[in-house]
Amino acid sequence: MKIKRFQAPDIRQALRLVKESLGPDAVILSNNAIEGGIELVAAIDVEDAVEASAPPRKPAAGSFNNALRQARAQQTTSRETRPEGQAPAERPAHDDVVTDFRQRNKTPVDRRAPSTREHRHGDQAQTIRRASQSFGKPSTGRPGNAPSGDADVDRLREEIAGVRRMLEAGFSSLSWQRTGEQNPERQHLFRRLMGLGISADIANHLLTRAPLGEDVEEGWHRAVHSLASALPVVEDHVLDEGGVIALVGPTGVGKTTTLAKIAARFCLRHGKQQLALVTTDHYRIGARDQLNTYARILDIPIRTASSEEELHDTLESLADRRLILIDTAGMSQKDVRLSEQMAMLQAGSQPVKTWLTLPATIQQQTAEQVIRAFRVARLSACVLTKLDESVSLGGVVSALIRTGLPLNYVTDGQRVPEDLHPARAFQLLEQAAAQLPPEDELSDDYLAMAFAGAGNYANG
Ligand SMILES: Nc1nc2c(ncn2[C@@H]2O[C@H](COP(=O)(O)OP(=O)(O)O)[C@@H](O)[C@H]2O)c(=O)[nH]1
Ligand SMILES: [Mg+2]
């Protein structure tokens, strides 16, 4: 067995790396969110790989993948030939492997006789979970995976951990397979939601609650509808009522462009006398130039404020303006100056509404990190930019659902002011669904892991 780790910015790229390095038979053992992306641990049964080029032979005893494959094949054959509900006469090879592991690890054997396929499945799953739990535990009482100082012991431990992951992957695979047998609509819809980039826990939660009918397309429509209902959206009246609005967010996400779009829309409705622009971005050379250009085109005043007092005074001096738009310095969620800058917006006597600007292309974990970091600015809404560049909206949609930050506007191009629209949840998700990648892009191994993980989350 060969086990490798792969890191990539998103799941699709990570899966591509796995496929390129280990081939299409690789099994995904685990997936974890890491800073800047995702880490997959994948394995390939080396014997399998060799098998492809070698003459046919009996599968090696103890090879989990082979045994699992055999077990699946036997399950399918026996399902085809035996009456519904009747237990098969022979134990599949997979049980032998589990028994073998149990004996080697002295795990108590569950002696209940399986009566139906349903029970057998449950017992198998429980057994695998138990076996995998006891199998990975260090026997020395030494905490965690601290190196023992003995190379052989460490290598053995690593192998045991690998086997444990294999068993867990087997468990996930069985659970995924069982759902496919008992509830193929649910499995199909889960696959589509995952294709959309929706997080596994939200997808599972949705499908557990939404009534699924016979018709898959109807079920899909209902799932998209439920997702749209879960996405928080707020209708904003700023273009009519005005106020003081600050656009915040990381660099390059489209704050200044969005601000120009809002300014131009407002000018068209109410005239230039009612509007002013302020920038607190004194960090970046050229930041003011960009805003200046828009101010010149619209013929509206622009001010710079680089401290709390200056901002306070500037806002006071512009009190007669119906709408004041504040452009802020783009800041990474890790920037130490972030809290200070965001606190500055809330320090004055005038209430400032802060809108977080996020690109539709952002990954779920990064979006959640950014939202958490910018919470100090008391965010009231989120503007989603660059819809035109996004391949999959699921990440950012999941982040908004999980954090509860409401969406108010979306932008889908660089044109000022045309490419700015009020957010409409259902329309947005229908559009995302229309861009779905081909269904075979996410492997069954990955889906099985995600499904099992989401099940645990939903149940616990
Ligand atoms: N394709 C596309 N590009 C956009 C959109 N909004 C902004 N941009 C571009 O993204 C780049 C960065 O925008 P900018 O407003 O300067 O970002 P800021 O650093 O957050 O102020 C510029 O080239 C914009 O033209 C959008 O909705 N779609
Ligand atoms: Mg800018």
Structure overview:
It is a single chain. The chain has 2 domains: 225 residues, no CATH class; 186 residues, 3-Layer(aba) Sandwich (Rossmann fold). The C terminus is likely disordered. The protein is built from 18 helices and 11 strands. An 8-stranded mixed β-sheet has the order 6-5-7-4-8-9-10-11, sandwiched between helices. Strands 1-3-2 form a 3-stranded antiparallel β-sheet. It is α/β, with parallel strands linked by helices. The structure holds guanosine-5'-diphosphate and magnesium ion. The site of magnesium ion (MG) has 5 residues, from helix 11.
Low-confidence spans? 49-143, 456-460
Q: Count of DSSP E strands?
A: 11
Roughly how much helix do the residues carry, as a percent range?
40-55%
Q: What oligomeric arrangement do these chains adopt? A: single chain
Bound molecules: guanosine-5'-diphosphate, magnesium ion
Percent of sequence in beta strands:
5-15%
* Cα-based radius of gyration, to the nearest Å: 28 Å
Q: Supply the number of helical segments.
A: 18
Strand order of the largest sheet: 6-5-7-4-8-9-10-11
H/E series, N to C? Answer: EHEEHHHHHHHHHEHEHEHEHEHEHEEHH
Give the N-to-C terminal Cα separation: 33 Å
* Structural class by sheet pairing and helices: alpha/beta
Mean pLDDT: 75
Largest sheet, in brief, is: 8 strands, mixed
Notable characteristics:
460 residues; alpha/beta; Rossmann fold; eight-stranded mixed sheet; 18 helices; 11 strands; binds guanosine-5'-diphosphate; binds magnesium ion
